[in-house]
Amino acid sequence: MELTVWITPHVTGFLAETGAPLNLSALGTTVDDAYSELHALVESRIALGGTIRTMKLLDQQPTFDAAGTIGQSPLFEEWIAAVEDYRNEHNTIPEVE
Known about the structure:
Helix content is 40%, strand content 14%.
């Protein structure tokens, strides 16, 4: 498992943070110290029975597959012409001549 860690300068040295969903932070006199302290916090949270998982909510692939077939429809050219007619009819921006 990999977890992104944000480390910034702090008055006492450096602050390492995980952000959501853990929202853990640790201070250290050096970047490595702050990182090590944060690592220990995460490990202790996991040792208590916690786990981190990702959740897939929507499969985007069918959308991408469908997008690749738009131009293959027999109605595609007719649709493009209808869009162009509509834009010409409702265009409020004058054409540059």
